């Protein structure tokens, strides 16, 4: 697989003043492959949002490098190209929408890239259709629901036609319905439109749908594997203040109570299968 | 509480007025406002009224939206009209009590003033109802363009206006939330003297200010993420373009002006 984002020996701290610095990441390495779907977990303050901002040059490393498709974010010449290729979606849709009409907001990114009008029209229409908001193109964003607003914000990023989209807790402010809508779009972007997706989240069920889960604590990676392998390390996750998906938790508690299971589970289906297998085994024994 | 404000809102529809070039619309709105002031008698003001009503119907926006706007400032219209009753002493005396004397002239004057204010409000409502804030700021940017020759940054000015317009509803919503939160904690905002009222506003303004600064930071990040780098090289989805419609509208407004002048002179 071809790497798309390469973070090499990166250190970063926020400077409050000359002397006072808040170190966030030190000697950090991470590679994200083209077309993959990676979830990043970690409790508040572990440096996830900072990392996201380093991916597109919104913040620059103190030392080390961030390469996007081989291009260094620290090089001023690359910056527009990098931002065009790595879209960022934030938590609060209200603070990402610039214009007062949905389609005008979606056009904002491509307008900045200087595309001719016909191309702008095509990109806006396609992006709105991709998030299923085409019928709302003439609406005012502030009248939409949270989930709809977030979909408009996502369309604004899709319209730049980036290679990769980084989502920073995109569902944290949404109700369950809005969460589901946004999650469906994230999956569609990766599976149908072949975008590289990085999803920062604190919902375990969302992370479980990724191909790879990276767990951060205090600016360091403490686990990086498939969702199955990561969530099997229940103790580790709990020690850094994270939960595991509910089915995993159930089997974990049963194991702790002395009931043996041979496999770890992640989804409702796997949990159901493991439990029914256990029951039929028990019946055989009796 | 604060969310039933219709004034300054945009109502999408597919009409002649919606499709006009925002620059022409802006200039014509100014023209009509001036006309409402220079119409000296009922006949000429009536002509402006007929034209305005015709334009309202052309917008295809339900008339009740216009009434709603009028309703919110009804008291203001009433006060300005009533004040005029006492100032005019022409015509026959209808009513007198102590120093209060009402003449027929006063009543006519009050009606005249009320109609004029209603027209001013309707004319400006047509502009905001049928023009997206973005086109409006684009129109202002375009009309101010000559100023960029003397070094004034008209793009930044227009972008600031767009963002301000975009955030007004968000901030109104937020103010509403903070007010409810403070009330739930026992804050009393309705009673008490002026000082007490001013004091009760502080716990609303401070959280609003703090959250606005946070919003501003996040918006700036989001704009940079979407490759914003000032007005240089930026293209637009909607380019203002004058068409046949705008010519028709301009001619109609010129005809209206001629009508007003003739009626002012001959009646
Ligand atoms: N703009 C900033 N200025 C100073 N410190 C910051 C800033 N943004 C974040 N931090 C600090 O950096 C650390 C990591 O924050 P962040 O990347 O937002 O973590 P996460 O997204 O995982 O919650 C926290 O200790 C936070 O207080
Ligand atoms: Mg964060």
Explain the overall architecture.
The complex is a heterodimer of chains A (286) and B (267). Chain A is α/β, with parallel strands linked by helices and 286 residues long. Chain A contains eleven helices and ten strands. In chain A, the strands form two sheets. Chain A has a six-stranded mixed beta sheet, sandwiched between helices. A four-stranded antiparallel beta sheet of chain A has the order 2-1-4-5, with helices on one face. The longest helix of chain A has 18 residues, at 268-285. In chain B, a hairpin with a 2-residue loop joins strand 1 and strand 2 (100-103). Chain B has ten helices and two strands, in the order αααααββααααα. Chain B has two domains: 1-131 and 239-267, no CATH class; 154-234, no CATH class. The chains are: A alpha/beta (286), B mainly alpha (267). Chains A and B meet through helix 2, helix 3, helix 4 and helix 5 of A and helix 8 and helix 9 of B. The complex binds adenosine-5'-diphosphate and magnesium ion. Adenosine-5'-diphosphate is lined by residues 14, 22, 24, 42, 44-50 of chain A. Adenosine-5'-diphosphate binds at residues 14, 22, 24, 42, 44-50 of chain A.
């Amino acid at each position: 697989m071809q790497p798309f984002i390469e973070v090499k020996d990166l250190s970063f701290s926020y400077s409050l003043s000359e002397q006072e610095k808040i170190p966030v990441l030190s000697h950090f390495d991470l590679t994200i492959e083209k077309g993959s779907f990676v979830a990043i977990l970690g409790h508040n303050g572990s440096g996830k949002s900072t990392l996201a901002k380093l991916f597109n040059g919104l913040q620059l490393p103190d030392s080390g490098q961030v390469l996007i498709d081989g291009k260094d974010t620290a090089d001023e010449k690359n910056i527009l190209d990098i931002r065009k290729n790595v879209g960022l979606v934030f938590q609060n849709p209200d603070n990402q929408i610039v214009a007062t009409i949905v389609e005008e907001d979606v056009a904002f990114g491509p307008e900045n890239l200087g595309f001719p009008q016909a191309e702008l029209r095509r990109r806006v229409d396609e992006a709105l259709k991709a998030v299923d908001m085409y019928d709302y193109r003439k609406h005012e964003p502030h009248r939409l629901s949270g989930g709809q607003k977030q979909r408009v914000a996502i369309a604004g990023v899709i319209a730049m036609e980036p290679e990769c989209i980084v989502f920073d807790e995109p569902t944290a402010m949404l109700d369950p319905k809005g969460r589901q809508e946004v999650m469906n779009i994230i999956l569609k972007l990766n599976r149908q439109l072949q975008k590289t997706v990085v999803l920062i989240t604190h919902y375990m069920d969302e992370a479980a749908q990724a191909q790879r889960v990276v767990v951060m604590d205090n600016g360091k990676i403490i686990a990086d594997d498939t969702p199955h392998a990561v969530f099997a390390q229940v103790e580790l996750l709990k020690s850094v203040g994270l939960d595991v998906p509910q089915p995993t938790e159930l089997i974990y508690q049963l194991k702790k109570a002395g009931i043996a299971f041979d496999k770890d589970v992640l989804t409702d289906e796997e949990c159901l299968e493991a439990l029914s297998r256990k029951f039929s085994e028990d019946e055989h024994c009796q | 509480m604060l969310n039933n404000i219709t004034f300054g809102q945009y109502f999408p529809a597919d009409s002649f007025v919606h499709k006009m070039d925002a620059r022409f619309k802006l200039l014509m709105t100014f023209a009509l406002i001036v006309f409402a002031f220079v119409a000296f008698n009922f006949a000429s003001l009536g002509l402006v009224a007929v034209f305005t009503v015709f334009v309202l119907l052309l917008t295809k926006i339900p008339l009740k939206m216009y009434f709603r706007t009028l309703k919110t400032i009804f008291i203001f219209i009433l006060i300005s009209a009533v004040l005029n009753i006492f100032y005019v002493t022409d015509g026959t005396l209808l009513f007198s009590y102590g120093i209060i004397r009402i003449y027929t002239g006063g009543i006519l004057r009050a009606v005249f003033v009320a109609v004029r204010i209603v027209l001013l409000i309707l004319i400006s409502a047509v502009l905001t109802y049928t023009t997206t804030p973005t086109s409006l700021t684009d129109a202002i940017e375009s009309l101010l363009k000559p100023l960029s020759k003397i070094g004034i940054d008209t793009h930044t000015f227009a972008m600031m206006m767009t963002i301000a317009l975009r955030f007004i509803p968000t901030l109104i919503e937020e103010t509403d939330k903070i007010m409810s939160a403070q009330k739930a904690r026992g804050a009393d905002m309705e009673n008490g003297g002026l000082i007490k009222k001013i004091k009760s506003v502080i716990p609303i303004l401070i959280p609003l200010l703090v959250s606005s600064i946070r919003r501003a930071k996040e918006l700036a990040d989001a704009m940079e993420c979407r490759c914003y780098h000032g007005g240089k090289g930026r293209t637009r989805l909607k380019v203002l373009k004058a068409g046949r419609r705008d010519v028709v509208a301009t001619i109609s407004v010129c005809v209206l002006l001629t009508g007003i002048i003739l009626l002012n002179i001959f009646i």
